[in-house]
Amino acid sequence: MDWSIQEIAKLAGTTSRTLRHYDAVGLLPVTRVGVNGYRYYDEHALVRLQRILLLRELGLSLPAVGEVLAAQEAAGHGATDALREHLVWLRAEQYRLEAQIASVEDTITNMEGGGPLMAEHMFDGFDHTQHQAEVEERWGEHAFASGDRWWRGKTPAERADWQARAAALAADWADAASRGVDASGEEAQVLARRQYDWLSGIPGTPQTADGHPTREYFTGLGEMYVGDRRFSANYGGETGARFVSDAMALFAEREL
Amino acid sequence: MDWSIQEIAKLAGTTSRTLRHYDAVGLLPVTRVGVNGYRYYDEHALVRLQRILLLRELGLSLPAVGEVLAAQEAAGHGATDALREHLVWLRAEQYRLEAQIASVEDTITNMEGGGPLMAEHMFDGFDHTQHQAEVEERWGEHAFASGDRWWRGKTPAERADWQARAAALAADWADAASRGVDASGEEAQVLARRQYDWLSGIPGTPQTADGHPTREYFTGLGEMYVGDRRFSANYGGETGARFVSDAMALFAEREL
DNA sequence: GCTTGACCTTGACGCAACGTCAAGTTCTAC
DNA sequence: GTAGAACTTGACGTTGCGTCAAGGTCAAGC
């Protein structure tokens, strides 16, 4: 049972170029090469490939991936040293990022001359509720001031966390859109759910009794995204916004 | 008043190669080129260079740095849009890292078959208090068990933060050592102070009444680092450990 | 038997921001 | 005059593939 390079690539969710690369660096040698020069992979290769991709998602470099796999093969199972080392790495990076964020915030406030970052930048990078006026028009008056108070009532750490969550969501949407992901597929729907859950945290949005956005609000918001520069700018233009909108509409249809 | 490429590089704390690169990409054009082909920079270039380096430390890409500077020049001062965009970026990265760290931790616990990460890995990446036995021998019995209880009493978030701090410190030591930094210089001494402050957070270490490590403990610890593989492995070998030790000794001499 | 189109190959450039030789020229000091 | 330091341009290396480019292979249809 063996597969061509494209077949195994699709099975594992990667590309043929990546497979050739892994072969070139010796991380995943090709199982068999036909007389025509074609590469073929068997099920052992598939398992190894899946492990490689998993470790890569954890942020390990290719040499590090190789170490982990070699250790596992040598010690039957276990040998987490390389992973633990990587964990230390990740934590150091996180700490560095934290410091950088603080520095950038300081720089911004210095350049703007005083005052900490307030509500006007609450939705930086994910400014969909800038549509506040339109939203209010369609779903009735909701005091944005209450949202503002909610924001100011948060601690700096909470604000940062909230913004980080929003930024990550925005980045993931943009990434998925650029990769041409299917709006009805699992990945996009997971994103739509994240968007939905995230919205639940914002007061001043139309919500059901259990604190979640209403179906109408959710789909309506999605529709408004399309064609609105303030939103689409962060999501790969109108194409990206349309993708987001589609995914949200499908989610609402199925789940709400 | 103009300087040669090496002179201005030293003034700003960078390298001549970097200056040539900035010239090549148009970020910092050279002020004047002599008939011999030599590059010369004036004070305006120095100011701009310093701004560039500052923004680079905040993590901006060269094009982003160019945008910020252009906006500042156009608008007199201000124009923080690019920086704010960068901030969103940083937060998204941080969030991504957080998720990765959680995944790696899960993977490790899965591979080791159960149980969350406990005290045995408390000092991962910065395991100087593994010298516990020797330390106790020299500074009297201090129950390591109390340190263990302290660790287990922390919340996961606190543990992660503490480990991140330790990992960052370790990484910075290793980096400074690899760059051949002077142990008596400001950079190394700042690191030594961080190390000192960090130690203050660990119960079970000899401390003065105000909760700080004693001078003897601090210098003694530094001495033990040299030649101990468990420590030096993380710091660029014995050379790195010696550098750390020297910096710590000088710090203790001057400040404690 | 031929064309078409999908799939495959190797080879090579591109990216980010410089570090690091290499080979040759110029300056400075003795 | 000459050693040695400083300078120049040019080019490769780094990481993990993406992305052409140019061409060979295969299955299907006419």
Gist of the model:
The structure is a homodimer of 256-residue chains. Chain A has helices at residues 5-12, 16-24, 43-57, 62-74, 81-112, 132-139, 144-152, 156-178, 186-200, 215-225, 229-232, 237-255, and strands at 2-4, 32-33, 39-42.
Relative strand content of chain A: under 5%
Order of adjacent strands in the largest pleated sheet of chain A: 1-3-2
User: Multimeric state of these chains?
Assistant: homodimer
- Low-pLDDT segments of chain A: 125-130, 141-145
Overview of the structural elements:
2 copies of one chain form a homodimer. The first copy, chain A, is 65% helix and 4% strand. Chain A contains 12 helices and 3 strands, in the order βααββαααααααααα. In chain A, strands 1-3-2 form a 3-stranded antiparallel sheet. In chain A, a hairpin with a 5-residue loop joins β2 (32-33) and β3. In chain A, α9 (186-200) packs across α12 (237-255) and α10 (215-225) runs antiparallel to α12 (237-255). The longest helix of chain A has 32 residues, at 81-112. Chain A binds chain B through residues 57-59, 77-80, 83-98, 100-101, 103-105, 107-108, 111-112, 121, 124-125, 160, 163-165, 167-168, 170-171, and chain B through 57-59, 77-80, 83-98, 100-101, 103-105, 107-108, 111-112, 121, 124-126, 160, 163-168, 170-171. The first copy, chain A, binds a DNA duplex (30 and 30 nucleotides) through α2.
